[in-house]
Target: ATP synthase subunit b, chloroplastic
Amino acid sequence: MKNVTHSFVFLAHWPFAGSFGLNTDILATNLINLTVVVGVLIFFGKGVLKDLLDNRKQRILSTIRNSEELRRGTLEQLEKARIRLQKVELEADEYRMNGYSEIEREKENLINATSISLEQLEKSKNETLYFEKQRAVNQVRQRVFQQAVQGALGTLNSCLNTELHFRTIRANIGILGAIKRKK
Model:
């Protein structure tokens, strides 16, 4: 307090208006001005600055909390997505394997069906050939039989005379009569 009083006393010794002058000691005047400005700022700005810093701190903490919550949510979603991806990959592998096995089964079924169809066609062809062969053999037999009958008739007609003809007729009538009597 003594220093403050001495300052005022010291001011009293300064010359008054008549001897107004400039203080050319820049360091002393700047230091005094800066001290006054800093003191006023600290005194009046302390509360405002504290409120600004507290608000800033709260916003930063809130942002950090929100970021952490978003990060946790994102990690959960990522884990769910990984699990879904694994499930889908497993299903895709199953479909792929089932598809390959289904293709193989269809291929085997097609080969078996084709083989059965070829066997049936071969059997049908063999049966057709057999029937055609039998038909040809029967036609040949019929022609041979017809030719034999025609040849026999021709031989009989040329060899038969009327007396032989009557004798054959009487013999047949006798055979028929004997058959009739037996009954």
